[in-house]
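so ive been stuck on this for like two days lol. basically i have the seq below and the ligand is pyridoxal-5'-phosphate, smiles is in there too. i just want the complex predicted, nothing fancy, no docking runs or whatever. if the output looks off dont worry ill sanity check it later, just need somthing to start from for the group meeting slides
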Amino acid sequence: MKVKQQLVGLSPYKPGKPIEEVKKEFGLKEVIKLASNENPFGCSQFAKSAIKEALEKLALYPDGYAQSIRTDVSAHVNVKEDQLIFGNGSDEVILILCRALLTKGTNTVCAWPSFSQYKHNAVIEGAEVREVPLVEGVHDLDGMLAQIDENTRIVWVCNPNNPSGTYVNEEQFKQFLAKIPRDVLVVSDEAYFEYVVAEDYPQTVPLLKEYDNLMILRTFSKAYGLATLRIGYGIGNSDFIQKIEPAREPFNTTTLAHVAASAALKDQDFINYCKESNRLGMDQFYQFCKEHDLKFYPSQGNFILIDMKTPGNKVFNYLLERGIIVRSGEALGFPTFIRITVGSASQNEAIIQQLRAFINN
Ligand SMILES: *Cc1c(COP(=O)(O)O)cnc(C)c1O
């Protein structure tokens, strides 16, 4: 069989190692996974109850337009219902955007290292990918601007950036947006929006009034703790969304995801609890890094990238054998770093103890 040329040499996404696999491989009873920026506190009880009620509907196709969650999200973010597009995770919204805008002969601009799926999907569509290195872990917006030409279709700003956790502030983002040609889509990927505490983090939703070339991505996978249900969304201009809708699969999000996400939205106490715990956990890691004079990037997400001054895979394997799964920076463009998802206080303490042992070894 002859697959698309673009697929040759492309590897599938490498996720964090699954817990069950690690238990078997190393004969462990307890395994802590802090590798995929999942919520260590699970999800809201409201979401679980909603799913139980919806179990009677499994035989029915979901509502393809996702009307119920659409109504709730539009009220929550304060936009019109037709300014939203729902995806099987925000990953799928990235795919839809690439499918709708990119072809051979076009290009797309993103930071490097950043979230892998911008490049991955662009490559499949045959577009050229222009990656602009981060400067000190932060998007080089001027460098990205310089890469835009008449064939550019999408510019990606991962904010905060995965894997560095750094962010582009409101002033920087506004100035950047003002300089982008109006026929180039700017995507602000805000997967960690709920965790952000920086006061100068951009409020992007109000900018939609001025910029019809802006698209904001959010998800229920991270702070809302619903990663397994695969639901995320894009917020943008109504006319633009209407144009790209045909590139969306008819039943791409499920009834269970709709009801759980709607219920989870109503439990902002849970989100606030997770946000506060995340900052306390982040402080545990900051303190550890300072004690050991390890470089790290201050993070607005629920993860931290730490320079262990040795190959990331070595630290990854050391922790793995001891029942802790993190991400090695080697696969993320930071070869001597590891990326750790901030867990519960006791999970954080457990990993910090192992890291201390590794350093003193
Ligand atoms: C996790 C993540 C996503 C994708 O999340 P979904 O589970 O597909 O909604 C998108 N962007 C970034 C930067 C992420 O870290």
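The CA atoms of residues 148 and 193 lie 26 Å apart. The mean pLDDT is 97.
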